[in-house]
Amino acid sequence: TSSLVYGFVNQLATYLNEAKVPKSDRFLVVPAGVSNLIRQSSAYTPAVETAYNEVVRRGLIGSIAGMTAYENQQIAGDSVNGWRVLAGHKSAITHAMAMTENKVEGDIIGDFGIAPKGLYVYGSKVIDERRKALSGGYWKL
Length: 141
Fold this sequence. Notes:
It is built from 3 helices and 9 strands, in the order αβαβαβββββββ. It has helices at residues 2-18, 32-40, 51-58; strands at 26-30, 45-46, 60-64, 67-71, 77-78, 82-89, 94-105, 115-125, 134-139. Strands 1, 2, 3, 4, 5, 6 and 9 form a 7-stranded mixed sheet that branches. Strands 7-8 form a two-stranded antiparallel ribbon. The chain is elongated and about 70 Å long. The relative contact order is 0.22. The mean pLDDT is 76.
């Protein structure tokens, strides 16, 4: 129910506090079913001033328990088996990207010009030391 949601979110915030994770830039990712319950909760602060850019285009729900809450359907769960949620800090995940094998292709048909070719690589990882900045839950609401 909407009255229980804040207690679960606050528990995740407590785990992050105990791990000494910074209070700024915290996030919460929930599925649509939990998002609906958060919006009904009295502890919910809606994102009024950024309604179109953030809420509609990026899935931002608002702020609850000091965390910016987002809705994402890739977080699994349902009301029968329970909901999976993810809370954390932006420092938990590293991301790298680079261009490798850069070269210029000179044989374009019709001497139209030159074409750069390359391989774009990227990846993300949660480093062992930074795992303390993430917390997850499995809620039965």
